[in-house]
Amino acid sequence: xxxxxxxxxxxxxxxxxxxxxxxxxxxxxxxxxxxxxxxxxxxxxxxxxxxxxxxxxxxxxxxxxxxxxxxxxxxxxxxxxxxxxxxxxxxxxxxxxxxxxxxxxxxxxxxxxxxxxxxxxxxxxxxxxxxxxxxxxxxxxxxxxxxxxxxxxxxxxxxxxxxxxxxxxxxxxxxxxxxxxxxxxxxxxxxxxxxxxxxxxxxxxxxxxxxxxxxxxxxxxxxxxxxxxxxxxxxxxxxxxxxxxxxxxxxxxxxxxxxxxxxxxxxxxxxxxxxxxxxxxxxxxxxxxxxxxxxxxxxxxxxxxxxxxxxxxxxxxx
Length: 318
Fold this sequence. Notes:
It is an enzyme of class 6 (ligase). With 318 residues, this protein is α/β, with parallel strands linked by helices. Helix content is 53%, strand content 15%. The termini are far apart.
């Protein structure tokens, strides 16, 4: 038996994401309701669409129930009989950003090692709303507002997809109850020390009650409208960067850069440093550097020992 969410996923996979039959998909799974919804839907579709599935699960070891939670996952895997790859991180204190980086590194290495075409995560429209509001509160820009995208290429022939990105939490909750899926309750989701939890349990319900009952849908529409704008800005940034970077050295033509709009100047500088140093500098640091580039000749210490030296039209990273 299929549900309306099965039909929704089929539309997302074949109309929006344009995946092909016979592809191999690595499902990034936890024991939460979003993940088990993703897993159930893909298992049902694999039977008729010839999809080759496997599971990757990471035990972060940040909860007291981590051992029995992992055993619950092992029992689940035994029942569904899919190839599975389980990882355990060494217990220590990580930031949310560090955890996210490690997760995606593990997903990518697993996909490379076992020849998967696609990595699928269980992010939903509710996650998209929370991420948008979180980044707004933290002073993000138009890029970070729409950071959860439907798909992106992460390595050569490997794509990351988020096929549930138009599923909301109420739909997934219904689906899990209807099919009696063995959800594991993550008690850390109700800890208000985590800002995202407070957004989920207090801010969004407040907005729904007093401002907009379908806030998730409205934010999704807003992000869709801005998505093409951000794509254009990214493409333009890459084109400008390619046109001003030095053909040999780690440098850029700063006089050509200063002829661009300030928005492009900041974006190109961010790309330059990310590409060459893997460091993402704050807007304040990049803005300060732009001011000094307008005046300086010689050298300028940026941060963490990175020094910019100008000569003629070029700014060199030394």
